[in-house]
Amino acid sequence: MRRILLPVAAVVVVLALVAGLWLFQPWRLFTSSTVDEADPGTVPSAPAADPASPEPTPGDDRTPTPKPDPDRSPSARPTPSPKQRDRVLARGTFEDAEHGTSGSAVLRQLADGRRVLRLEDLDTSDGPDLHVWITDQPSGGEWGSYDDGRYVKLGALKANRGNQNYVIPEDAELDGLTSVVIWCDRFDVAFGTAPVDL
Q: Cα–Cα distance between 185 and 49 in angstroms, integer?
């Protein structure tokens, strides 16, 4: 049986082609994914059940009568406590970097104290190893400059389109950060940036 030996050059070309496909993933030029997460600031919390009020039995249309409070006059109303509200810390519109990118970035502090970055109506290219960062580099700068200074990593980009939320770590220091970046870790380049001076 005769053995067929491939020339070394052919093996090198095949290996280079496989490595290039893995590295660049050119099919992502034609793929897309969408996420539509609810705005964390508008999700109503379920009212807590009152353990003192009896549960109505199935088929019982009667509403339980509240027990009178002897310490309160009939005309007295409970004093509303000051309610904490969500507040917007910063907002910016995405601008193109290496790839066309649109949508907006909203940094919000929720009533419970958590800080969240929300990407709204995001539309950018799909790509390998995409992440969401907040950095101290100005939006619209050099595509590869966003890892030069200080930055906070918020995780992998969930989809290249839609509405998505990223919880900011409690210990993250945001003072001095100026832009939200869709960052390609594989090629150290920004796909798009949004100014959010903090």
A: 47
